[in-house]
Amino acid sequence: MANGVATMSSTPKFDLPPSSSRLPSGEPSMPQPALPPALQAHAAMLPHLLPMCANARIALFAIRRMGAHGLADANAAHAMFAAFGLHFRRPLVLMRALMAEIAGNAVSTVSIAPCCCPRMTAAESTLLDVLAAAETRPDQARLLLEDLLAVRQADGLLATAAAVAASFADGGRPIS
């Protein structure tokens, strides 16, 4: 306080960049502004960006809506209809089956974010990784599912996830 007037610095606080974040010329890269503690907590809860693949975003929307509002959610059904046209039933029914199996078999909590969030939880990211790997890398997908749900055998869930991935691919929207 100077002369009874409070002064505040208008320059943001910056964290020093780590030594590994240097430009090719050897100069340090631009410092990143420090996040307030409240935003750091949110960033820890939602550590992943939304997927770049539009098909994976459709699957994520359906997962979030069905996880939060039930298997018969009209918005999830409409999103599937808008994405797949007249052939929306197979991916919708299989996604419902996957969500029901996850809810019935999971030993641990599977966290999902609200639909409006521009980031993903670790569980959502893992589910999308499972859907992307279910057909081509089933062993990796099985391990991811077993870790996510804290179960010893996830063969039934893996088969359902592979069916969901196949239905998306057959509809011209492969999840990658």
TrEMBL record:
Q: Where is the composition biased (Polar residues)?
A: 1-23
Which domain of life, per UniProt?
Answer: Bacteria
Q: Where in this protein does the record put region Disordered?
A: 1-34
Name of the featured protein: Uncharacterized protein
What organism is the protein native to?
Answer: Sphingomonas gellani
